[in-house]
Amino acid sequence: MIDTLTRAPALAALSTPVLAPERRRDAGLVEGLVARAFGPGRFVKTAERLREGRDPILDLSFVAWSEGRAVGCVRQWPILIGEAPALLLGPFAVEDDHRRQGLGARLIRRARDAAEVAGHGAILLVGEPRFFGPLGFTAEAARAVTLPGPVDKGRVLALAFRPGRLEGMARAAG
Protein backbone atom coordinates (compact mmCIF):
# COMPACT_ATOMS: atom_id res chain seq x y z
CA MET A 1 0.00 0.00 0.00
CA ILE A 2 1.30 3.49 -0.92
CA ASP A 3 1.47 6.05 1.86
CA THR A 4 -0.08 9.14 0.25
CA LEU A 5 0.99 11.41 3.11
CA THR A 6 4.68 10.84 2.47
CA ARG A 7 4.22 11.06 -1.30
CA ALA A 8 2.30 14.36 -1.33
CA PRO A 9 5.39 16.64 -1.08
CA ALA A 10 7.14 14.70 -3.85
CA LEU A 11 4.09 15.05 -6.09
CA ALA A 12 3.95 18.78 -5.35
CA ALA A 13 7.58 19.09 -6.42
CA LEU A 14 6.76 17.53 -9.80
CA SER A 15 4.22 20.24 -10.58
CA THR A 16 5.85 23.61 -11.23
CA PRO A 17 3.43 26.28 -9.98
CA VAL A 18 2.18 28.81 -12.52
CA LEU A 19 2.50 32.48 -11.53
CA ALA A 20 -0.37 34.79 -12.43
CA PRO A 21 -1.29 38.35 -11.44
CA GLU A 22 -3.51 38.51 -8.37
CA ARG A 23 -7.20 39.07 -9.10
CA ARG A 24 -9.71 40.73 -6.79
CA ARG A 25 -11.38 37.37 -6.24
CA ASP A 26 -8.05 35.93 -5.00
CA ALA A 27 -7.95 38.25 -1.97
CA GLY A 28 -9.33 35.67 0.47
CA LEU A 29 -6.92 32.98 -0.72
CA VAL A 30 -3.97 35.36 -0.46
CA GLU A 31 -5.01 36.50 3.03
CA GLY A 32 -5.21 32.84 4.07
CA LEU A 33 -1.69 32.13 2.75
CA VAL A 34 -0.30 35.15 4.60
CA ALA A 35 -2.17 34.27 7.81
CA ARG A 36 -0.77 30.72 7.78
CA ALA A 37 2.75 32.00 7.13
CA PHE A 38 2.87 34.90 9.60
CA GLY A 39 -0.04 34.54 12.02
CA PRO A 40 -1.77 37.43 13.74
CA GLY A 41 1.55 38.97 14.80
CA ARG A 42 1.97 40.41 11.32
CA PHE A 43 -0.45 43.23 12.15
CA VAL A 44 1.95 44.81 14.66
CA LYS A 45 4.90 44.94 12.26
CA THR A 46 6.15 48.29 11.03
CA ALA A 47 5.67 47.35 7.37
CA GLU A 48 1.97 46.91 8.11
CA ARG A 49 1.79 50.65 8.96
CA LEU A 50 2.74 51.38 5.34
CA ARG A 51 0.06 49.02 3.98
CA GLU A 52 -2.80 50.33 6.13
CA GLY A 53 -5.53 52.00 4.13
CA ARG A 54 -4.03 50.95 0.82
CA ASP A 55 -4.86 48.26 -1.69
CA PRO A 56 -2.17 46.13 -3.31
CA ILE A 57 -1.43 46.83 -6.95
CA LEU A 58 -2.91 43.69 -8.47
CA ASP A 59 -0.96 43.89 -11.75
CA LEU A 60 2.27 43.82 -9.70
CA SER A 61 1.13 41.22 -7.15
CA PHE A 62 1.24 37.52 -8.01
CA VAL A 63 -0.28 34.22 -6.95
CA ALA A 64 1.39 30.85 -7.54
CA TRP A 65 -1.08 28.17 -8.62
CA SER A 66 -0.52 24.41 -8.50
CA GLU A 67 -3.24 22.02 -9.54
CA GLY A 68 -5.92 24.67 -9.00
CA ARG A 69 -4.67 25.62 -5.53
CA ALA A 70 -3.03 28.89 -4.47
CA VAL A 71 0.34 27.81 -3.02
CA GLY A 72 2.22 31.11 -2.91
CA CYS A 73 1.78 34.86 -3.20
CA VAL A 74 3.56 38.20 -3.22
CA ARG A 75 2.02 41.65 -3.02
CA GLN A 76 3.24 45.15 -3.86
CA TRP A 77 1.78 48.37 -2.50
CA PRO A 78 2.05 52.01 -3.52
CA ILE A 79 3.98 54.13 -1.01
CA LEU A 80 5.91 57.37 -0.91
CA ILE A 81 9.53 57.63 0.12
CA GLY A 82 9.77 61.29 0.95
CA GLU A 83 7.80 62.81 -1.93
CA ALA A 84 8.79 60.13 -4.44
CA PRO A 85 6.45 57.29 -5.38
CA ALA A 86 7.81 53.80 -4.76
CA LEU A 87 6.55 50.29 -4.04
CA LEU A 88 6.50 48.28 -0.84
CA LEU A 89 7.03 44.58 -1.51
CA GLY A 90 5.43 42.13 0.88
CA PRO A 91 4.20 40.11 2.37
CA PHE A 92 5.04 37.04 0.40
CA ALA A 93 4.17 33.54 1.49
CA VAL A 94 4.57 29.97 0.29
CA GLU A 95 2.62 26.94 1.54
CA ASP A 96 4.69 24.46 3.56
CA ASP A 97 4.48 21.73 0.92
CA HIS A 98 6.02 24.06 -1.70
CA ARG A 99 8.82 25.58 0.37
CA ARG A 100 12.52 25.05 -0.35
CA GLN A 101 11.81 24.60 -4.06
CA GLY A 102 12.65 28.15 -5.18
CA LEU A 103 9.05 29.34 -5.39
CA GLY A 104 9.57 32.30 -3.05
CA ALA A 105 12.48 33.57 -5.15
CA ARG A 106 10.44 33.08 -8.35
CA LEU A 107 7.60 35.15 -6.89
CA ILE A 108 9.95 37.95 -5.82
CA ARG A 109 11.72 38.02 -9.21
CA ARG A 110 8.39 38.13 -11.03
CA ALA A 111 7.13 41.02 -8.86
CA ARG A 112 10.46 42.86 -9.18
CA ASP A 113 10.54 42.46 -12.96
CA ALA A 114 6.90 43.52 -13.36
CA ALA A 115 7.58 46.68 -11.34
CA GLU A 116 10.55 47.55 -13.51
CA VAL A 117 8.65 46.94 -16.76
CA ALA A 118 5.77 49.10 -15.46
CA GLY A 119 8.22 51.96 -14.96
CA HIS A 120 8.38 52.12 -11.17
CA GLY A 121 11.56 53.63 -9.80
CA ALA A 122 12.18 51.69 -6.60
CA ILE A 123 10.98 48.89 -4.33
CA LEU A 124 11.33 48.91 -0.55
CA LEU A 125 10.87 45.91 1.74
CA VAL A 126 11.61 44.68 5.23
CA GLY A 127 13.21 41.26 5.06
CA GLU A 128 16.16 38.95 5.42
CA PRO A 129 19.25 40.22 3.53
CA ARG A 130 20.55 36.72 2.84
CA PHE A 131 17.32 35.88 0.97
CA PHE A 132 16.64 39.21 -0.74
CA GLY A 133 20.28 40.19 -1.42
CA PRO A 134 20.74 37.72 -4.30
CA LEU A 135 17.53 39.15 -5.79
CA GLY A 136 19.05 42.65 -5.96
CA PHE A 137 17.87 44.25 -2.71
CA THR A 138 20.38 45.93 -0.37
CA ALA A 139 20.39 47.75 2.95
CA GLU A 140 22.79 50.27 1.39
CA ALA A 141 20.11 51.32 -1.12
CA ALA A 142 17.71 51.94 1.79
CA ARG A 143 20.16 53.63 4.17
CA ALA A 144 18.39 57.03 4.17
CA VAL A 145 14.88 55.59 4.52
CA THR A 146 13.15 55.65 7.90
CA LEU A 147 9.97 53.78 8.66
CA PRO A 148 6.99 54.69 10.89
CA GLY A 149 7.91 52.40 13.75
CA PRO A 150 10.63 50.19 15.18
CA VAL A 151 12.53 48.03 12.73
CA ASP A 152 15.97 46.45 12.46
CA LYS A 153 17.68 48.87 10.04
CA GLY A 154 19.68 45.98 8.55
CA ARG A 155 16.40 44.43 7.36
CA VAL A 156 15.19 47.55 5.54
CA LEU A 157 16.17 46.78 1.95
CA ALA A 158 15.60 48.49 -1.36
CA LEU A 159 16.18 48.15 -5.06
CA ALA A 160 16.36 51.19 -7.32
CA PHE A 161 15.79 50.58 -11.02
CA ARG A 162 17.59 53.75 -12.03
CA PRO A 163 20.83 55.04 -10.48
CA GLY A 164 20.23 57.72 -7.88
CA ARG A 165 16.53 56.89 -7.58
CA LEU A 166 16.73 56.62 -3.78
CA GLU A 167 19.27 59.40 -3.24
CA GLY A 168 18.00 62.07 -0.91
CA MET A 169 14.87 60.18 0.08
CA ALA A 170 14.51 60.57 3.80
CA ARG A 171 11.48 58.59 4.87
CA ALA A 172 8.72 56.25 3.85
CA ALA A 173 5.40 58.01 4.37
CA GLY A 174 2.09 56.42 5.22
Structural class: alpha+beta
Termini Cα gap:
57 Å
CATH fold annotation = Aminopeptidase
User: Counting H and I runs of at least 4 residues, what is the number of helices?
Assistant: 5
Low-confidence stretches: 1-14
Report the helical percentage: 25-40%
- CATH architecture assignment name: 3-Layer(aba) Sandwich
| Secondary-structure element series | HEHHEEEHEHEE
**Total E-strand runs:** 7
CATH superfamily: Gcn5-related N-acetyltransferase (GNAT)
Described by strand count, sense and barrel closure, the largest sheet is: 7 strands, mixed
Percent strand equals 25-35%
Q: Indicate how many domains the architecture comprises.
A: 1
The multimeric state of the shown protein is single chain
Level-1 CATH class name: Alpha Beta
Residue-averaged pLDDT: 83
The shape is: globular
Radius of gyration: 17 Å
Task: Give the helix/strand layout.
Layout: H1 4-14, E1 18-21, H2 27-38, H3 46-51, E2 62-66, E3 69-81, E4 84-94, H4 103-117, E5 122-126, H5 129-132, E6 156-160, E7 172-173
Parallel strand pairs: 4-5
Antiparallel strand pairs: 1-2, 2-3, 3-4, 3-7, 5-6
In short:
This protein has helices spanning 4-14, 27-38, 46-51, 103-117, 129-132, and strands at residues 18-21, 62-66, 69-81, 84-94, 122-126, 156-160, 172-173. The chain has 174 residues and is of the alpha+beta class.
Q: How does this model look, in words?
A:
The chain has five helices and seven strands; from the N terminus they run H-E-H-H-E-E-E-H-E-H-E-E. It is α+β, with helices and mostly antiparallel strands and 174 residues long. The chain has one domain (4-173): Aminopeptidase (3-Layer(aba) Sandwich), CATH 3.40.630.30. Strand 3 (69-81) and strand 4 (84-94) form a beta hairpin. It is globular, with a radius of gyration of 17 Å.
